[in-house]
From TrEMBL:
This is TetR/AcrR family transcriptional regulator C-terminal domain-containing protein. InterPro entries: DNA-bd_HTH_TetR-type_CS, Homeodomain-like_sf, HTH-type_TetR-like_transc_reg, HTH_TetR, Repressor_TetR_C, Tet_transcr_reg_TetR-rel_C_sf. Residues 17-77 form the HTH tetR-type domain. Residues 40-59 bind DNA. PANTHER family: HTH-TYPE TRANSCRIPTIONAL REGULATOR RUTR, HTH-TYPE TRANSCRIPTIONAL REPRESSOR FATR. The keyword Transcription applies. GO terms for biological process: negative regulation of DNA-templated transcription. Keywords: DNA-binding, Transcription, Transcription regulation. One of its GO terms (molecular function) is transcription cis-regulatory region binding. It comes from Nocardia bovistercoris.
Length: 251
């Protein structure tokens, strides 16, 4: 999803040459200028230099077009995101999470289509499910139970999406109002009444902010918990094995 220059002007289109791919590509171009919320069929027709009825021939309403854009965006996003591998589950999951966050933060349109927009097409939902299935499968192969693997990846996914969406909403508010701030910027810290908070925040910490420090801390907590579950499972298996051996020796 390469960003085009807003100043680039499309050549006038020949009659009858419009196709769905051109419409989707033009919609991404226009969304970079006006956002997903500002995208409309009449504006897109003007951008593509075609009558709006030509667009409705392929996409009957804006939601149909957004579904097609989401399918394309999600396909490219899945392709760009590293898989979780069982043989090195922690490092690959760490890389997976950081890449997901980076991709979404770096592409507001992708974030708006996949994370903020509530509706997904069946195809997009299937792509998301297959990606999650692979991650859970890898964690099970690493030694977690299905429930533990599901809960681990679900918590990780929620952590990534929550961090990205909070940042995106903050950015959108700033675009609409330069004076707008975030809730974590408005917390009143008084060294006399909240000395511990004052001490921590004097070092650059922000409570609840979707910044790198908080993201990495939450990420470490999730992975540490998964490591503890694996260690407990291994210890239980070792204990059971020793019990069998001791019973066999006693018999």
């Amino acid at each position: 999803m390469t960003k085009r220059s807003a100043a680039a002007k499309r050549p006038r289109r020949e009659r009858g040459s419009l196709n769905p791919d051109d419409i989707i590509e033009g919609a991404f171009e226009l969304a970079e200028q006006v956002s997903i919320d500002g995208l409309s069929m009449p504006l897109l027709g003007k951008h593509l230099d075609v009558g709006v009825t030509s667009i409705y021939w392929y996409f009957r309403k804006k939601d149909d077009l957004l579904n097609a854009m989401t399918d394309r965006a999600l396909s490219q996003y899945v392709f760009a995101t590293p898989f979780v591998e069982s043989r090195d589950w922690r490092e690959s999951l760490l890389n997976h999470a950081r890449t997901m966050r980076s991709v979404f933060l770096g592409n507001p349109i992708l974030c708006d289509l996949i994370l903020i927009r509530s509706a997904l097409s069946p195809h997009a939902a299937q792509l998301g499910a297959r990606g999650m299935e692979h991650a859970v499968e890898s964690l099970v192969e690493a030694g977690l139970s299905v429930d533990e693997a599901f809960d681990t990846y679900s918590a990780l996914n929620l952590h990534i999406r929550g961090s990205v969406v909070l940042q995106r909403l903050y950015d959108k508010n700033k675009e609409q109002d330069a004076e707008a701030g975030a809730y974590y910027d408005d917390i009143a810290i008084d060294p006399d009444t909240t000395p511990l908070l004052a001490e921590a925040m004097a070092k650059g910490r922000k409570t609840g902010a979707p910044d790198d420090r908080n993201f990495e801390y939450g990420l470490k907590c999730i992975l540490d918990h998964a490591s503890a579950l694996l260690e407990a499972s291994k210890n239980a298996a070792d204990a059971a094995s020793r019990g069998v051996s001791e019973a066999a020796a006693a018999g």
